[in-house]
Structures are given as C-alpha cells and as structure tokens.
Design a protein that fits this description.
This protein is mainly α. Helix content is 54%, strand content 0%. The longest helix has 14 residues.
Length: 63
C-alpha cells in the first residue's frame, strides 16, 4: 500500500500548529520578516513558509 501524501509531506516534515502559523503571518506582516527568515526560525522549507504566508495574508513574501 502506498501513502498518497508521501511526496507532499516527506518524513521528518514539521507540522505547524495554528498558533505557529498565526505567529508567522504576524511576523511577516508587522515586522517585515522574509520567508527565508521565517523558514529558518520555524524549521520549515522556504517554499512552505511562502505558501503559508501567501494563503493567510493574500500576499507573497517579498524580501
């Protein structure tokens, strides 16, 4: 049996809580943190950080 989510969530991928996602968006919005900084701080990929910020704040990561 194969896992349908194997490509989207590789082993060791961190699942963020709702509080962490909220904190990420607030840091990006009000302290102008870049997706690279957020990814490093929360231990996720830059792509994942960009996706979270873009979906939650209707904008992308700039800078």
């Amino acid at each position: 049996m194969t896992d349908n989510h194997a490509g989207r969530f590789p082993k060791g991928a961190k699942e963020l809580t709702a509080d962490e996602i909220y904190h990420m968006v607030m840091l990006h919005t009000y302290q102008n943190k870049s997706c690279r900084q957020l990814a490093r701080q929360f231990g996720i990929s830059e792509g994942k950080a960009y996706e979270i910020v873009a979906r939650r704040s209707n904008s992308g990561c700039c800078g």
